Task: structure prediction
Amino acid sequence: MAEVSPFHDEATEIVAEQIEAIARIDDRQVDDLLAAIGQASRIFLLGEGRSGLAGRFFAMRLMHLGKQAFVVGETTTPAIGGGDLLIAISGSGETGAVVMMAEGARSAGATVAAITANTESRLSALASLIVQIPTQHKLQGASSRQYGGSLFEQVALLLFETMVSMLAAGDAATGFASLAKRHANLE
Result:
């Protein structure tokens, strides 16, 4: 029998952390966000650093599903307004730029959804919808064997990928075919 390598030991521990956090996400919160995505005229994704990268992944898949999705800060992102949904991602819920832009979106009449570990944060107070990723955030200290907010960011990405799968499965007309139809072809 082959000996398990230090890499595999570490990867197994990281995946176990992800599974534990995912199991603690509230299904109703996810269902509420899925409903808001379905009702939104347009969807805007906002996050800084690695949380922002997870948001970019989600924006791309939403576009593949035929949704009008934009990443806040890109040069082609239009003004936000009523009927639009801003999904703001911040583990601490206190990231200055994210909170400031969420305030602006709310003032413009958009619905704000927070993806956060901190339901007592300024971002959570601005949000109509919250999906709590039950990990500690960088303002609380470490809850993971990984550095910083890595666990939060990984679980956010898995949350978004799972939601894409659920949205595609719920589209009986096209399902995953809609993703392939809109995938980049200038490669």
Q: What stands out?
A: The helical segments are 6-23, 27-39, 49-64, 96-107, 122-126, 150-169, 177-182. The CA atoms of residues 22 and 55 lie 17 Å apart. The first strand starts at residue 43 and ends at 47. The mean pLDDT is 89.
